[in-house]
Write a structure and sequence with these properties.
Elements lengths: L1 E4 L7 H9 L6 E3 L6 E7 L2 E7 L5 H9 L4 H14 L7 E8 L4 E9 L5 E2 H6 L6 H17 L2 E3 L7 E7 L2 E6 L5 E3 L5 H8 L6 H15 L3 H29 L4
Antiparallel strand pairs: 1-5, 2-3, 3-4, 4-6, 5-6, 7-9, 8-11, 9-10
Helix pairs in contact: 5-7, 6-8, 7-8
């Protein structure tokens, strides 16, 4: 077993390790648990969010032991780096990896649980969500700040940005599901647009985002929209093609 704790919870080491060892039988389930299982635990006045990652296949068991960092470790390290760069994410508290003779057996990432008002997904699914355009424009400026700091959030998708109202008309944004990120000295225009293409299939939203991104970046609004809409359409085509293929492969179910 290997684990690392944030300095802020060093004195609570025994309790955190107990939560993880009893993970299957304790804690409050959060979310649907279809892929990774997330549970909530109370720790000295803090609600702790612990994610148990899906048990890796044989190849990844070996890879995560000898060649790659585990998803839990990457989540912890990336969260720490994001906070250093003044990008919102729930406070990282710990990660733990269990090994057997083959390789990585299971892994856990613990962070402070954040109550939010919505995610980006609500903006996609509820067109008349209160203050919709204002939130979308602020989210676009948040995404621009990521790009300016060289942060390529590879899972920049609808459910992975938590949005919290901080004051009247003002919102804060927090990234979650952090294990797939790249950090660059500088991001090209094409890479920036590709990074935004998974967020929404709604053309009107892409138009608003293009307008706001043009305001903060100084790039041509027409160029931003044409490029972003092309990447969005390409992504949607790949996404639906993959869904159709999965449906055919599972026709007997």
């Amino acid at each position: 077993m290997k684990y690392v704790l944030a300095p802020s919870v060093k004195l609570m080491e025994d309790k955190i390790l107990l939560f993880i060892s009893d993970f299957k039988t304790s804690g409050k389930l959060f979310g649907d648990g279809k892929r990774n299982i997330i549970k909530l635990f109370e720790l000295e006045g803090i609600t702790m969010n612990i994610k148990s990652f899906k048990i890796p296949n044989l190849i990844n068991k070996i890879a995560y032991r000898y060649f790659r960092k585990s998803k839990a470790r990457r989540s912890f390290e990336y969260a720490t780096l994001l906070l250093e760069k003044e990008i919102g994410t729930p406070q990282p508290l710990a990660y733990l990896e269990n090994y057997n003779w083959i390789g990585l057996k299971d892994s856990y990432y613990a962070s402070e649980h954040l109550e939010c008002n919505l995610t980006y997904r609500e903006l996609v699914e509820i067109p008349d969500y209160p203050d919709h355009e204002n939130i979308l424009r602020q989210f676009t400026r948040f995404s621009y700040s990521l790009h300016q700091k060289g942060i390529e959030f590879k899972d920049h998708s609808p459910g992975n940005t938590l949005i919290k109202k901080s004051a009247e008309g003002q919102y804060d944004f927090f990234l979650v599901d952090l294990n797939r990120m790249n950090f660059h000295e500088e991001m090209s225009f094409e890479l920036r647009m590709k990074n935004l293409c998974r967020l929404t299939p709604v053309k009107e939203m892409v138009e608003v985002m293009s307008n706001e991104y043009a305001k903060v970046s100084g790039e041509s609004e027409d160029l931003i929209f044409e490029t972003l809409w092309k990447y969005t359409a390409d992504f949607q085509e790949r996404f639906h093609r993959k869904k159709r293929l999965k449906k055919k492969l599972k026709f007997w179910k």
